[in-house]
Amino acid sequence: MTDLNLPLALDEIEAPHSASGEQVWTHDLSGVAPPARPVRRWTPQRVVATPPAYDHPHGLRIMARLASLGIEVERLKSARLTGVRGENDRQTYARAKSTLAIVVSPPSRRKLQPIAPSADWRVDLAEGCPAHCQYCYLAGSLSGPPVTRVYADLDEILDGLADYVGQGTVTSRRAARRDEGTTFEASCYTDPLALDHLTGSWRRAVEHFGAWDAPVQLRWTTKFGDVDAFAGLAHHGRTRVRLSVNCLPVTTRMEGGTSPLAERLAALRTLALDGYPVGLTIAPIMPVDDWRDHYGELLDAVASAVDGVPDLDLTAELITHRFTPGSKEVLLGWYPRTRLEMDEESRSRKHGKFGAVKYVYPPDVMAELRGWFESSIAARLPACRILYWT
Fold this sequence. Notes:
20% strand
């Protein structure tokens, strides 16, 4: 039985792409994960809604949207979800991955948390993702089977953001990024474009920020390319969409069920031409064989994608791969044949702010990677502003 009132992920998440949970189970999902290839919009095999979800206008909007797609919504008697458990752990997790729950956000999610170095505040509109990335940074931090939860109380969540304006420390008070205003990161625990065709939540959030006459910015990142619903919205430059990209050896081998790189870059161009501030989340950076050539090809492809875009506002966030003992255990359980390198002996051991052990690349490797990316981005994408390296 799964309690849908509980958050899917533990709160001790240090930053985007940084896992820190230690209490985990292992599950073999290798036969479940689709490869990275042209993808259809995700259609969950089961959709449920808790009773409080029916009390919120956005919950009813989600249900109406699902009905228009021919997807039945099962009304639960409580927040207890049954029927997810299978004959073994693999079947249980496969069922959870194909289940969508419409719920009201737990109180812990309504009190916003800082999310340095990405943004001032983390705002959650959903938790869970139907993709199968073999390096998933939440893998070691799940509190139970990964049933995707979407929040019915979206209107209340958005209305509550005004209390946080000017209160952050990442962009609100730093001269280098003050032009972004108070920033709200809306993709920490999910991928918006994997879900928005079912919920409309991020489209509604873009419109909310577009109508909000204040120094604020909505931010989210995605590995999908389905952005047609966002072109033409009255965003007024207050939403920065970043495309999560990587070199081809990573995207084709380790990002199952996501859009191919070419589709993501086409989406980047579409949004940039529509006047959105856009960005690259290059993550997780890995020194794979011939990494300079592969990442050079990536940057060249990005340069082609944004060529000729007027008034281009492009940023880059550079995030290297790291893992914890807990995330390694669960990822090897999910994907026992993964090519993802997680060798503690070749890494530097560090402690996160919550005390969890994490393994990062040693200082010499980090310095080499950082130096190459900074110089290569300056040469190939001179209009691109690097926000941070981690």
